[in-house]
Amino acid sequence: MALKMVKGSIDRMFDKNLQDLVRGIRNHKEDEAKYISQCIDEIKQELKQDNIAVKANAVCKLTYLQMLGYDISWAAFNIIEVMSASKFTFKRIGYLAASQCFHEGTDVIMLTTNQIRKDLSSPNQYDTGVALTGLSCFVTPDLARDLANDIMTLMSHTKPYIRKKAVLIMYKVFLKYPESLRPAFPRLKEKLEDPDPGVQSAAVNVICELARRNPKNYLSLAPLFFKLMTSSTNNWVLIKIIKLFGALTPLEPRLGKKLIEPLTNLIHSTSAMSLLYECVNTVICVFFFSQLCVQKLRILIEDSDQNLKYLGLLAMSKILKTHPKSVQSHKDLILQCLDDKDESIRLRALDLLYGMVSKKNLMEIVKKLMIHVDKAEGTTYRDELLTKIIDICSQSNYQYITNFEWYISILVELTRLEGTRHGCERIILSKSMCRSAVIDVLFSNQTLEAMLRPKVTTLPGHIQAVYVQNMVKLYASILQQKEQAGEKEAAQEITQLMIERLPQFVQSADLEVQERASCILQLIKYIQKLQAKEVPVAEEVIALFAGELNPVAPKAQKKVPVPEGLDLDAWINEPPSDSESEDEKPKTIFHEEEQRHSRHRQPEIDEEELARRREARKQEQANNPFYIKSSPSPQKRYQDTPGVEHIPVVQIDLSVPLKVPGMPMSDQYVKLEEERRHKQKLEKDKKKKKQKKEKRGKHHRHNSLHTESEEDIAPAHHVDIITEEMPENALPSDEDDKDPNDPYKALDIDLDKPLADSEKLPVQRHRNVETLKSPDSEVPLVEKKSKKPKKKEKKHKDKERDKGKKKEKEKKVVEEEEDEVKKKSSKHKKKKHKKEKEEKSKDKKKSKKKSHPSEEEPPESVQNGTLEDEPLPVSSCSKPLRFSQGNLQHDSQVTVSVIFENKSTSFLKSMELNVLDSLNTKMLRPEGSSVHDGIPVPFQLPPGISNEAQFVFTLQSIVMAQKLKGTLSFIVKDDEGSTHEKLDFKLHFSCASYLITTPCYSDAFAKLLESGDLHMSSIKVDGISISFQHLLAKICFHHHFSVVERVDSCASMYSRSIQGHHVCLLVKKGENSVSIDGKCNDSTLLSNLLDEMKETLSKC
Amino acid sequence: MHLQLSREINSVRSVKESEDTQQQIIRETFHLVSKRDENVCNFLEGGLLIGGSDNKLIYRHYATLYFVFCVDSSESELGILDLIQVFVETLDKCFENVCELDLIFHVDKVHNILAEMVMGGMVLETNMNEIVTQIDAQNKLEKSETFIFQSPRQDR
After folding, report:
1. Which of B3, B14, B19, B48 to probe by mutation at the A interface, max A CB count within 10 Å?
2. Of these four, A64, A244, A594, B69, which has the most CB atoms within 10 Å of its CB?
3. Considering only CB atoms, which chain A residues are within 8 Å of B42?
4. Interface contact flag, A277 B78, Cβ < 8 Å
5. pLDDT per residue as tens digits for the range A620-663
6. What family is it from (chain B) (predicted)?
7. Which domain holds residue B39?
8. CA–CA distance from A711 to each of A298, A395, A689, A1016, B63 (Å)?
9. Residue B155 forms part of a structural domain
10. Residue B131, domain member (yes or no)
11. What number is the ipTM of this complex?
């Protein structure tokens, strides 16, 4: 044994601890991964050992490795083992590891429920604290539901340290288990006025966090917070409250006026910059807005402290939402901030710009941004800039863009930038979108050709889809142009080009692209045939795009109600057999498509014909001197540049050349636009006509200008960009704006409604109880209740202490009946004896479990003479569960059986018996639980019922009587609800209870007395009136002796202790007195035994 | 330097991420923070990695150490800067003149200290004395257990 222990600790010495691990990793920089995998192997070995200290050390190291990015979820079970260690040191390591690596997907997490519950109710506040901290990191909906009630109870814990943690963790519980919010809210509210500032702060924190998401439910708390704001001196609390008011005030404008005064006071009195800032921030944004405040912010922004500058801009952006005009006047300052060396500040300024643009200044702002794009080195920032430019321009459907030619030129410039792969996709997308709108304005041969370049296929699918669509539009326009100009050959060429290039899209992996491309391809092939017959087709093709086809809103489908009686999941026809369909379906699609677009049927073209045509085309191309051979050239040209560089650069056939040497082309537009506006103004002044003449000869259809736009700036081209289309019968609901998965939506709960009976937190059911069913296992959380019983309970405790007696029963008290019950219980307390039998020794080898309850117990209860209506704790036997030679002298066990009788009229459940262990006597608890854990009583008690439970104690020394303090906690449930109650008791182990009645023969007895090993002691008790016979019976019964020999009024008696002490007595009765001489191996035990006997006899 | 950073980021733990994502966040954050000059502001706008625009990185730089907190808009920016200061001062008290190596070798202790300040992503306690008291009490408890641990009778 000893050797094993030594070996164990030597092993442990060689284990690496955390520090060794860290040092090792630092020393193995070159082969870190290898070293760590070695360490993990060691750790796995350590985890296999039984020693909890070794395990904890291993888990501690794992936690560190987790931080380095190694997956340690395989050790989840070991972590739970360490969590359930009884020592705080290990427990803390376990919970830390759990909080680092457990998450909702960890399956073993459900095993922790009971362990956590135990820790939560631990008498050691740090056990509870560490459990709460850990739980806050990995709470799951299940854990939240199961533990909500326990945490609720902790919110009223006596220690502020626990209270504040319990309050704070409630937020996590609410998130995971929203049903708990209403039952728990009253107590949470109470905590706002907790005497401890930490608890108060936690409560404010939780409520603010809740209110931030759903402010309207918390309006009723405003007066309470108002009071707090004027009384609290904690800056953290104040900041939170002020932020909260910032959220509440928009909902209740009257609040604003009330708040001005306290806020102003704070602003004047506080020295904390953080608080000051929050006050100012809230004041300007919410309560009374003034130009003055913006001026103040300006001062902040101009401050040399970068943090203040940043915050100033941040506040500014909040104002922007409500008062955009007043911010616009500070454009200079904000543009200046764009030059700041600090990226955070530049980004803030960019954000502000977004809200500042108007038709007037858009071009100017974008021009400045373009300069920044050129200067920006970091790609992140440049991408951000690009995105912002596009956002700024495209906001509200290009509301601020007056000249799309300019915009396109900007986009073209942006695409030319190098190394902005990220931003480019955005640009193309936006460009394509834009193009579909402005396509009529800008078209040309080259554009089409550019669009057909093979590299386009490297773009993402959704962009290609837009692309393909626009190609046809372009094609249609060009076709019309050519036909009108009578250039038939050119028209045919362009058709040929389309047919040539479209197949690359038909092969696209993206379904949408594929579908669109193949439809169009068929269409164009048909057109080609018509062209060959010299039929003019342009008009008809153009007609395809005659109607407005707005984009369909993404939510449109959802908004169409399903017509009554329509089952979308039902088959319309019998499900087709597998063989069919495949080939046929596409045909029908084409069929419909063509019917819609043209009057003639496209004859189907089979592969052969296609091949033949392709051949013919090639031939034709080869012979055509005007045809630019497409095959290798475009690819070659771009071969050595990365893919995004291939974004086609649109050559726009416009009045102004896009490329002006030495000058960015968009600048040209700025100038032109200015000119145009100027001209416009002049014209308007002169004529005040609404109709305008063409400005830019080439664009016939879009020159009717809107002269009455808000800012009197007419767009150069009128482009209809209509909002997304909704089906006519769409439901006008906004519900879908909210994300159904938003965790905070579930917390949108009316808290002012009184609690209904059904709203309760689930309380754990007792697992062992199957026979007794509780009427209702849920406990409504009614606050007032829990308080009253507490006081009563105290009275009980006092009484008990007075009586100084042993253990008693539980009792539940319902209001009036209370007194009565008390009397009863105090009465029976006196008589109650808890008793225990020990036993053990020679029959160690026998299996105890079977023999004792059946054989020993019944006789004993008889001996004890149990009184009928009084609950008697009855003792029974005990036995060491383990037998080990070395420990015999120090290890004895005693089983205590306790009868619980419910004398109240309420239902009792979840009883847990806990005893404060002494060094000598300990309650035997299940493996893995701590010394502070109670042991559940395996049954529930309906009114008037009694039942018996047994508990095992371990003793080291039996020479002295022992008294243990204990607590029985239980839930009292009656019609009105349920309360948690406790009952304190003392458990008295008399020395007699360590004796086992053992028969002894007189000769053996005589030898024993002669041996001389025994200490001797004696007592004499006067005033004994009962008969000698009766007296001996009492000693036998109460002190577990047996009579060896009796001669007249003299008797010898014998007994034996569980640890093998022999006890011999010589009892002599005189007149009215009894003298007892005792002999025993242990003098202390003997004198204690005699003292007990004296007490018993003196009562006779 | 990298290690310290990782710890702090881990400790924010507002969102449970896989280890890979965690490491990526840490690397990226480190990259962002370390290339910033002195005398710029202590705030960094949130990227997608840290949960979008509502979130911010707020950091302080002490010698070779960066303390980075990731917070959402319900926290006061300057308040968090104060909190980092409290954290560092607490570390200084608990380790008695804290230095980089203390933090490297006693990651668990740093975690325990942080746990007294921030719980489940929410600020728990901002009063340094209170934090130090609780930490000391727990250390004492741990020591007393070590003592019991060494006595063979209890060990069994």
Report:
1. B19
2. A244
3. 306-307
4. yes
5. 655 655 554 444 433 333 333 344 444 444 444 434 333 333 34
6. Belongs to the adaptor complexes small subunit family.
7. 3-150
8. 27, 17, 17, 117, 55
9. no
10. yes
11. 0.90
